[in-house]
Amino acid sequence: MAKQKKADTAGPVEVKKKKKDKRQRGEWTGEQELALVKLLIENPSYQETLFHIWLPRKMRHLRQDLASKDVVEGSEHIILPMEVDSVLKAIVVQIFGRDGLKSQSDVNSHLRRMRYLYLNHRGMMDPDAQRMLLRDMTSDAEDAKMTQMSQKRRALLTKLPWWDAYHELVLTCERRSKESSIQAPTSKPSETPDAVRSKKGSKDPPNSKPYQTSSTGQYPIKREKQDREEWPQIYTTSVHQVDSDVKEGPSAFRSQLTEPAFSHQQITQVTISASHSDESQADIKPPKRKHASNKTRSSRQPTASIATVGRYRHERNMMRTQLLIEREAIKRLRLEREATKRLELELKEKESERLLKVFSERMDALEDRMMKRLGSLEKNVTGV
Questions:
Q1: Burial state string for 157-196 with b = 16 or more CB within 10 A and e = fewer than 16
Q2: What is the pLDDT of residues 171-189, one digit of tens each?
Q3: Residue-range domain boundaries for the chain
């Protein structure tokens, strides 16, 4: 029975100890909180990486409590979770040391708590006080309103020493966002040459030459195909065939009718020669006429090719930008790793110096004790 009672009483004591350890681990001093805010002010890279944690959620350009690339509208920076963890780890090392009890999650949660407290106290202030720091309030000592606001701000800083520094960080971010919105260009981006060509191609007349791009005569094969489609040939195998061809394709004879040398005798000569060559060319079959869909398809070929080229260029540019962003992220990670390694080396050197100092002090104390013992032994020997 005694053993069972001891076992029953051992459980709550262990729970109490764990609760005490958690309380000790969660305690933050005012100096540590102020050091955290100063690190954010002095390091713009920390600000950018932890933007979704420290900036208040009542800003217009924020959506949800997600990573920075999903929070900020129009942001071109991609913040990876590895970068957030590395920055939080560096902050822990700089504030609490390598052997501190705090972790990355502790810094994350406490920074969110500071943001919540900041928003609550800022919401209870006057509109003028919300846009001012303590040094701005104390500049005019004769103004009664300023003195009253400065007294309230000092009372707040006695409870939360970090509040004014946090307020400065948020105000600078707000001013920067306003300036960028004012300086943003309102004009439309310049159109690409492909888009201009596609627009011009849609307005060209039907008799234009889309394939002939220079005086050297580029794309001659395509030009011949287009001429065949637009101006079909007339085969003079017989008089009836000539008449049927003239009825079907009057545009073929349009240029000949306008010539001054064209006369009735030439027409009779053409018919006579056609009748003589009827027997020799009777076995030759006339070529089949192309379907009207081929004409429409050939007329749409230039615009389709330009659209595909523009799409491929856009995809290639997007891939290049993605590669550049990934390279920048890798460079940033390398720099942060080097910084953490330097900090670790410095901390190790300091720790080794401290241990060496403690060891030397202990050796000195041991030497003093040994000398005292030797002195007492010598006295005893001489007394005997």
A1: eeebebbbbbbebbeebeeeeeeeeeeeeeeeeeeeebee
A2: 988 888 777 767 655 444 4
A3: 16-180, 233-287
